[in-house]
Design a protein that fits this description.
alpha+beta; 3-stranded antiparallel β-sheet; two-stranded antiparallel ribbon
Length: 93
């Protein structure tokens, strides 16, 4: 699936995104287990709330990390991975 910049995503039902102190990282929790996320993935998924479009997420991360202008592809790749793993669901607009 090719992600469009206007799409809005939320964490999928039966999944929870949270900071896990014991892991010292963000994680995705789901009935079958847990996935520990690296810092970049955590930053991206922290903005996935069912309200921000993909373009708004990219813009917010570029503002938070000045000088990282070439991160669009990385953000899109992370969102595509999360979508393919079932961690995200698209919000109807």
């Amino acid at each position: 699936m090719s992600i469009q910049l206007s799409q809005v995503f939320a964490i999928a039902p039966h999944h929870r995104f949270q900071w896990e102190e014991a892991q010292e990282s963000f994680v995705i929790l789901f009935p079958e287990g847990m996935v520990k996320l690296n810092q970049g993935a955590g930053e991206i998924l922290s903005l996935v709330n069912g309200q921000h479009s993909v373009q708004q997420i990219i813009d917010a991360l570029k503002a938070k990390f000045p000088g990282a202008d070439d991160i669009d592809g990385d953000i899109l790749a992370m969102l595509e991975l999360a979508l393919s793993k079932g961690w995200l669901s698209e919000v109807a607009q």
